[in-house]
Every structure is written in C-alpha cells, then in structure tokens.
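From the thread on structure requests for the teaching lab: each student submitted one protein with a one-line request. Submission from student K.M.:

"Model Dienelactone hydrolase from Humibacillus xanthopallidus, tokens only."
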Amino acid sequence: MSLLAQWEAGRHAAEGNDYPTYRRGEGPGVVVMHESPGLTPEVIAFGDELVGHGFTVVMPHLFGSSHSRPRRHEGALVIPRLCVTREFTMFATGVTAPLASWLRSLARALHDDVGGPGVGAVGMCVTGGFALAMMVDPVVVAPVVAQPATPLPLGRRRAGDVNLSDADLEAVARRAADGCPVLGVRYEHDWVTGTRFDTLTELLGDAFIRVELAGHGHATLTDHRHPDAVERVVGFLEERLRGPGIA
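Reply posted by the TA:
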C-alpha cells in the first residue's frame, strides 16, 4: 500500500506552474517541501509526524520519486535535472528561485482554508532556502530552513548565498526585525550548507535561531533524522502557529 494512501491527493496551479500536492491532518497549516531525490518515505514519515502533533500538512511533489524508496541511481540523476530546470537556481547567486512564487501561492491557499495566525514552511536541502523566500509573504509566520544546499557551495560566494534576490533579502530582514524569527537546523560539519548560517546570523541577528548538531550528517529531519532537530522544529511551529502575539 502506498505510504500516501491516507493523504488527500490534489494539485495547485498558480504563477504558471502546476504541481501535485498531498494533504493530511487538522490544525494550523504547514507546507513541507521535500529534498532530493524526491518525496521519499522519510519525508512522508516526517509529514506524518507533524500531522500527529496536530498540524494540517501539505507536501507538494516538486521533482523525483514519490511514496516509494528511490532507485539506487535516482539520487545521482535528480541534481543534474534540477540544474537545467527553470524553477530552481542551483548555481546563480543573488537570485530567488522562480518556484518561490508558486510556493507563496500554495501557502496563501492553505491559510485561506485553515485560518489561524499564518502557516509554517519547512524547506530541506535544495528547497531549504525556499522557506526564506516564502516568508516574504506575511502569511508565512514560521519559516524553517533545514540544511539549505543551494546554490551549490562551489566557491566562497555561492557557499554564503541564501538563494534570495536583494529585494527579497531586504523583505526577509524587515520581517525578522518586526518579530518573525527564522529557525535553521543543520549538522555542524555538513559542507553542503556552506556558510549560509553565518550569512543569516549576520543578516537577522537574534531573529535567526541557529541549531547546529554535532556530526557530519545532512538530512536532519529525514535520512539522518536527529531527535533534537525534530523537537526544535515541532516546538517552533507550535509556538509560532498556536502561541499568542504572532508577528
């Protein structure tokens, strides 16, 4: 039986894009964006975990496999495909990925449906920076950046880039200054994340909640799941989506 059998399948069309979505749960809304190589069993398990904590979770299927364990070679194929996909920016610096507009629309649609102070956005790996891009829209009040990996950290400039245009970078800084924090989680020695946490600390100051785990792992919430990372993410979502005085 498919691991997505209990999830409601749908689609969201906006901003010239149309992607499948999977939804489950009740309560405040959270958009969970999967990592490479796709919507894997580990990503679905994390979504199920959030559902168990009382959230309405929507997972868009953006690329790669879904609901089944990817074939051994699939991971090696996904990144080259993303490098030539218009909606992702795997190398360019100072640019917001075009897919961000579609994700903001998805967040607004979810919030319109479930209400509350706003929605959460959890990005992982190649989608890690998308949570930042989504918080440009005030409907996103709980952005989580998990092991952000784009642009690929080839050289000092790319390693420190957070996948945002100058205008979006300024908007993120304003929102943070106005009281919307950003949670970041990564393994301390994960080279793929480059120096992006340093960039975010410099940009956002104390509004960037920096969680760095000991070790050389990568996927903090899935393949290399760390209970402390999951606990911090759940706690952050609880505080931001259920707590009083949300900014």
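TA comment: DSSP finds eight helices and ten strands in the chain. The chain has a mean pLDDT of 92.
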